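Input.
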Amino acid sequence: MKRLWLLFSQTVTVLLAAYFVVGTLKPDWLAGRVSRADAVALLVAPASSNSAAPAGSFRLAAQKSSAAVVSINTSKAAKNSPRSNDPWFNFFFGEQGNQPQVGLGSGVIVSASGYILTNNHVVENADEIEVILNDSRRARAKVIGTDPDSDLAVLKIELDRLPVIVLGDSDTLQVGDQVLAIGNPFGVGQTVTGGIVSALGRNQLGINTFENFIQTDAAINPGNSGGALVDTSGNLLGINTAIFSRSGGSMGIGFAIPVSTAKLVLDGIVKDGVVTRGWIGVEPNELSPELAETFGVNAKEGIIITGVLQNGPAAQAGIKPGDVVTSVAGKRVANVADLLSGVAALKPGTPSKFSLLRRDERVELAVTPSVRPKPRRPVQ
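Output.
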């Protein structure tokens, strides 16, 4: 019995020693054999979405923001041709089918309540608007309000568990910052393109009344209108609006409306149904040597006021023809578009500080803007 116990103890000791040796030198031998089914499952299992992104990848920014970018399909009722009932016209040209007009665009969900920002030209005069989410859900959209002056519109859909984009700060953007453009170009499906901020404050393009565009070389094509321009953290910086192109496709010059402007439009439409802008009643012009000499002004920068509306807000505050406005509410103005946008952003009825030059004297005035009047339609 004693001999058997001694043999058993020696065997256990040898096995334990072998186990530790193998565990140190070949630990994979101890993992056990993987069944064939388990091996197949491991091969086909998708990589974790939380895996670290490779250096230089914008994967996380795209994942964060793309869920809140939607595709927008619009349709307009067909217009009856004035010759559709003319038998001779139909004989030579065939019957002209009255097909509804369809359009494509993009939008950005900015509220869990279902509010969507897009371009006015995407939904203008549309009879039906369908929104398609990135998760393939579809919903009919209602137009809450539009602002043709900024080419923005606010839609609303009734769905639950909506992804919402995070609003960034477009005022901190600098030329050279990396950005992503997200939308549905040519209706091929959601697409993410990358580039940099090429320029800021682009205006005088003849696109909108109020222009303060972010220019980017991220590829923007037809169908991207109303989509998102985001930073490398996935935060919304602008609403993609237009491209400069001779071919109809991207040539590396695209324009987006800053999110700072979009927020003002969104708040105005949601709260009041309209966008209320400030107005002071002046005729501004770019400062030129000829105008400076005419009004006797010794200024190198700013916007010269060549006319002031009698009894308007500017006149009541003491602004006179020949004054050169250098800043509005603490923000420098370098051209007429800056002044127009700066005044429009002021809250009507609330005094704001204007800095100006009057001949050789620096003057500061408190101007109380009124509500910007609606443009008069030409008589037909």
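Confidence is low (pLDDT under 50) at residues 31-48.
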